[in-house]
C-alpha cells in the first residue's frame, strides 16, 4: 500500500467509543449545577433559551439522559468540556499506537462527526500514560474535517470534497475507520481503506473485502 496521506476517524479508530459515553457525558452531568451558577455571559445567554426556566437542572439532565441532539445543549456541553480539557480534568484516551502513528506519518488528517472545535480539544489534550501532563497532537495533524466542512461520513461526495481540499488523488489517501458504511463511501471515490478493529468496538458482522487493522505499529 503506497499511500501518501492518512485520513483517520476518531471514535472506535484512534480512541475508545466509550470515551464519549462513559467520560464526556458523565463529566457534563456532574457540572450542570455549577453551570447554573455561572456568571459567564455566554452560558447565561444559552441557559436563558431553554423553555423550562423553573426547573433547569432537571430539564438539562433529562436532555442528556435521552441523548437529545439539542443545539443549545451541544453548545453548553462544548463549553463545559473545553473547561475540563483546559484545567486538566479531562484527557483524551488516544490509543498508544495511534499516538505513535500520528507522530510518525508525515500527512495525517482527521475526519469525524464531532465538530472541528471538539476534535482540536481532544487532540490537544491527549492522556500521556507516562506523565501527569497531556500530549498535544495538534502539530502533527495537517487538517481537521467534520460534517460542516465536508458533509456526512457515509456519503462519497464528502470524501471527494476532502480530496479537493487537501489536493490529493484518491489512491494517495488511506482512510481508517471502524464503520463499514464510511469505508464504503470512501472506497466508492477510490480511497484506500482499512477497517479498524479495536477492543470495545461492536463486532462487525459483514467485513466484505476490507482489510483489518488491529495494531497501528504495523502500518
Ligand atoms: Mg468511528
Automatic annotation (TrEMBL):
Its main location: cytoplasm. Binds 1 Mg(2+) ion per subunit. Its cofactor is Mg(2+). It holds the Pfam family Hydrolase. Pathway: Amino-acid biosynthesis; L-methionine biosynthesis via salvage pathway; L-methionine from S-methyl-5-thio-alpha-D-ribose 1-phosphate: step 3/6; Amino-acid biosynthesis; L-methionine biosynthesis via salvage pathway; L-methionine from S-methyl-5-thio-alpha-D-ribose 1-phosphate: step 4/6. Its EC number is 3.1.3.77. The keyword Nucleus applies. GO terms for cellular component: cytoplasm; nucleus. Belongs to the HAD-like hydrolase superfamily. MasA/MtnC family. This is Enolase-phosphatase E1. The gene is TDEL0C02580.
